[in-house]
Design brief:
Layout lengths: L2 E12 L2 E12 L3 E5 L6 H9 L6 E5 L7 E4 L13 H6 L3 H4 L7 H13 L15 H15 L3 E5 L7 H16 L3 E5 L3 H7 L2 E6 L1 E7 H4 L2 H21 L8
Parallel strand pairs: 3-7, 3-8, 5-6, 6-7
Antiparallel strand pairs: 1-2, 1-4, 8-9
The structure holds adenosine-5'-diphosphate and magnesium ion.
C-alpha cells in the first residue's frame, strides 16, 4: 500500500490549545477511512489540517497534492444556506478545478452539472434556490458538486448527520463507488454500525490517536471506552478551568 498522505507528529491548536495532539500515521492511496471519536475530539480540525486549511502548531502533514486535488464536504453547521444561489450554480462551483475560480463555465460543465444532479436523484431541481431544499436534498446537491469536481481525494465531514435513511443509502452508494474508482476517501462519521459495515479503515481520535488501522481492530470495546474516558477528562478539565479560561462568547 502506497502512503498518499502522511501525518508526522501532527498537532493543531486554536490559541495554543491543542485540538489534535501528536498524531502520526498514513492514509494509503485508494483507502476508505472513517474518522470516529467523541464530540470535540478534533475530527473536523484534522480534516482541515489534511487539506492545508489549518497550519500545524507542531509536526507535519506530508503529501505531494495540490489544494485542488482535494474534494471537501464541510460539516452542515458550517454552511450558510441563506446565500442566494441556485442548485445548478452550487453544483457548477465544483467545476472550478477545470475552469479556475474566475474562468469561464463552458457548456460541457453545464451538461456535466446536469448529469451530476440526476446521479444524486435531483433531476429538474437546477433552478431551485438552495434555501428551499430539505437537509437531505441539500446534501445531495453537495455530493453532485463533488461528482463534478472529480477529485482524487475526498474528505467528508459528517456527511450523513441529520439526513434521512434513503438519502444516506443513496449517498453511501456514491462513496462506495468513489472507493471502487480508486479515489482516497476520508469521512468523519458518528454511526458506528455504518463504519463497521462500509469502512475498511478507521482512525479513532480523542484529540490524541486512540487507534488507526483495520476497522474491526480499532473499533474494539476497549478502544471505544478509552476514547470516551479521554473525552470525559477534558470535560472535567474545562469545568475546573473557571470563567477566566472560558473563550469569549
Ligand atoms: P470534532 O469535529 O471532533 O467535534 P473539532 O475539530 O470541531 O472537533 O473541535 C476540536 C476542539 O477545538 C473543540 O474543543 C472545539 O471547541 C475547538 N475548536 C474548533 N474550532 C475552533 C475554532 N475555530 N476556534 C477555537 N476553538 C475551536
Ligand atoms: Mg466536527
Amino acid at each position: 500500500m502506497t502512503p498518499l498522505i502522511r501525518l508526522d507528529n501532527l498537532t493543531v491548536a486554536y490559541d495554543r490549545h491543542p485540538a489534535v495532539h501528536h498524531v502520526s500515521g498514513s492514509f494509503a492511496s485508494g483507502s476508505l477511512t472513517a474518522i470516529a471519536g467523541p464530540n470535540g475530539a478534533g475530527k473536523s480540525t484534522l480534516l482541515k489540517a489534511i487539506m492545508g486549511e489549518l497550519r500545524p502548531a507542531e509536526g507535519r502533514v506530508e503529501h505531494r497534492l495540490g489544494r485542488r486535488e482535494f474534494g471537501y464536504l464541510p460539516q452542515a453547521a458550517e454552511i450558510d444556506r441563506r446565500f442566494p444561489i441556485s442548485v445548478i450554480d452550487t453544483v457548477m462551483l465544483g467545476a472550478w478545478k477545470t475552469s479556475g475560480a474566475f474562468g469561464r463555465i463552458v457548456p460541457a460543465d453545464a451538461r456535466r452539472a446536469g448529469e451530476a444532479l440526476s446521479t444524486v436523484g435531483l433531476e429538474g431541481f437546477g433552478g431551485r434556490h438552495i434555501g428551499s431544499l430539505s437537509a437531505g436534498q441539500f446534501q445531495r446537491v453537495l455530493f453532485a458538486r463533488l461528482l463534478l469536481q472529480d477529485a482524487g481525494i475526498i474528505l467528508l465531514d459528517e456527511p450523513f448527520t441529520a439526513i434521512d435513511a434513503r438519502t444516506t443509502k443513496d449517498l453511501l452508494d456514491i462513496v462506495v463507488r468513489w472507493h471502487g474508482e480508486g479515489r482516497t476517501v476520508i469521512a468523519v462519521l458518528h454511526d458506528f454500525e455504518l463504519v463497521r459495515a462500509h469502512f475498511p479503515q478507521t482512525l479513532l481520535l480523542a484529540r490524541e490517536l486512540v487507534g488507526w488501522g483495520p476497522t474491526a481492530e480499532v473499533m474494539s470495546p476497549a478502544n471505544l471506552l478509552k476514547a470516551r474516558a479521554m473525552a470525559e477528562r477534558w470535560e472535567e478539565d474545562a469545568e475546573t478551568c473557571g470563567p477566566e479560561e472560558a473563550p469569549a462568547a
